[in-house]
């Protein structure tokens, strides 16, 4: 999604929405809830997928559900505004030669499969980016499915990279929608 969503197009939320459904509809909701209310970032403030938003709000200092819903939707709109679809990314790359691409996955993932021309983010590369890259050139950041790259994109935006965007759906969506020659994979967590 490349356009900022309007209130009419946002998925409906209520106090009866389960946290599992909430995270499916709004992938950045846990980050938003943690940032504002310290909910869902650690074991002591976590929640179960079957709990409702109202239950979570009640046991966390009786946060008004309407306030939490508004915050989640505003955060979702902000997340959407810094994303670029795989198709729009491919079009941008065909039109401009100054597009830089950063991969925030693990070294093992990057070595197994990467978008052509992407550079793996390391501490050394970040220093190079900050000291010598054009802050007004397009900077596309991706991970496996598009979740972690949002945080990295916000980081680069916060450091003045005005054209930083997160690749919606990550390399997985890119391989489905743009370049099927890139193998898809699943990350197995032990």
Describe the protein in words.
The protein is of the alpha/beta class and 190 residues long. It folds into two domains: 19-81, no CATH class; 83-177, Rhodanese-like domain (Oxidized Rhodanese, domain 1, 3-Layer(aba) Sandwich). It is built from nine helices and five strands. Strands 1-5-4-2-3 form a five-stranded parallel sheet. Helix 2 crosses helix 4 (65-81). The longest helix is centred in the middle third of the chain and has 17 residues, at 65-81. It is elongated and about 50 Å long. The two termini are 32 Å apart. The model is unreliable at 1-7 (pLDDT under 50).
How much of the polypeptide forms β-strand, as a percent range? 5-15%
Helix/strand class? alpha/beta
User: What best-fitting shape do the alpha-carbon axes yield?
Assistant: elongated
Strand order in the largest sheet: 1-5-4-2-3
